[in-house]
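Lab notebook: predicted structure, single chain.

Context: the supervisor wants predicted structures on file for every construct in the current expression panel, including those that have not yet been purified. This is the next one on the list. No modifications to the sequence; it matches the entry in the shared construct table.
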Amino acid sequence: MGEDGVATDSGPYNSLLRAHFRDGDLARSGKLIEEMKSYGCSADASTINIVMDMLSDGRLNKSFLDMLS
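Prediction complete. Output recorded below exactly as produced.
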């Protein structure tokens, strides 16, 4: 997203994260989190909730939460 010169916030990333997590694509989800950070987007409450919900039901491990900091 940021490569095209389009300034974005975490909203579009959260939508993509939710979709990739739902599909079980953890590798792509991790890359999206890294991309989001590289373009200066901070994780917001929604991003953290997405990750926390998946942590609490066992679909993710703690490394994803560490990526948000």
